[in-house]
C-alpha cells in the first residue's frame, strides 16, 4: 500500500512547487530601500584616449624683454654734452644782447699769482669774457664771409675771451667799462687793423681789449677777408 502512495506524494509535491513558482512569478518581492541604487546626478562621457592630444607646453615669448624704465628724478637735469659744432654756430642778435663781459674772479685779486697770456704785460691777470656783437655786423662782408662769421662767431669770442686779461691797475682802482673794437680776419687766419670803435673810457681797458684780439689770432680761415665788430665789457665784483 505504501508503494501506491509514492506516486500520489510526488504529484502533490509537484503541484505545491508549481503553485509556489506561479505565486513568485506573478507577485515579485519588494526590494529593500537600502539596496536601491541612488542616482548620482552626474553625467559621464566617453573619452577616446587614443585620439586625445596632450596639452601644449607653454612656449617662451620670442619677443625680447626690455628692461623696465627707471623713473628719473624730475628735479635732476642732465645737461647736454657740448659740441664744437654747437659752439661754432651763433644766430644773429642785436649788439646790446651780445656783449662780452669781463669779470675778475676772486683768485685774480692782488696778491694771488696768475699766469699772463701770451703777449700780455707782466702783472696782468686773466679775466672772463661773455658775448660779443652779432656776426657780420660790419659792412663790406660777402655772403660767404657772413656765413663764415655766423658759423664761427662763438669760436672767435671764445678765443678772445681766453686771451683777455684785466689790467691790474684798473682792477685796483675799480675802473670798469665797455670797449667796442673793429678788426679784420685775413684768409690765412691772421688779424690786422684792430682799433677801438668806441672807447671804454679807460686807456688801460682799451689796450687790454686790443691786445687780447692779437693774442687770440690766428683764427679759422675765412673764404675771404672778414671785418668784425666785438664789444668787450670789463666788470668788477
Automatic annotation (TrEMBL):
Which intervals hold domain TonB C-terminal? 151-237
Region annotated Disordered sits at 52-144
Q: Which Gene3D superfamilies match?
A: 3.30.1150.10
Q: How does it sit in the membrane?
A: Single-pass membrane protein
**Superkingdom of the source?**
Bacteria
Q: Name one GO cellular component term.
A: plasma membrane
Q: Which PROSITE patterns match?
A: TONB_CTD (PS52015)
Any Pfam family hit: TonB_C
Regions of compositional bias (Low complexity) in chain numbering: 111-123, 130-142
Tell me where in or outside the cell this protein is found: Cell inner membrane
Among InterPro entries, the record links this protein to:
TonB, TonB-dependent_transducer, TonB/TolA_C, TonB_C
Instruction: List all membrane-crossing ranges.
Output: 6-27
Which residues fall in a compositionally biased region of kind Basic and acidic residues?
56-66
Q: Which GO terms describe its molecular function?
A: energy transducer activity
GO biological processes: protein transport; siderophore transport; transmembrane transport
Which family, according to UniProt?
Belongs to the TonB family.
Descriptive protein name: TonB family C-domain protein
Which species does this protein come from? Treponema primitia (strain ATCC BAA-887 / DSM 12427 / ZAS-2)
